[in-house]
User: Fold this.
Amino acid sequence: MEDYELERIRKKKIKEMLERNEKPKQKRVIVYTSPSCPYCNMVKEYLSSRGVEFEGADVSLSREKAQEMLSKSGRMGVPQVDINGRIIVGFNQAAIDEALAAR
Assistant:
């Protein structure tokens, strides 16, 4: 499915929810990164360009965040994106869009 089609569906669902006086649920997004990773910056820039609020977790500065990331995915590579519990390893734009579009 094309990006514009997914965006059209998302906007339609939000409009329907607003008509029923429901608020769209905010996705909980955590981006695990390290400063030397260019793909980490790409993920953050992409999410920002889509208007997605996210928590940044620099695993090079926080052993706790590194352990959290490892326990979620079993992998140490960055970037890793946690969207409502769905873990995406690497900058995979299609997977990010799919996770953001999911309920």
User: Anything to note?
Assistant: The chain has one domain: 26-101.
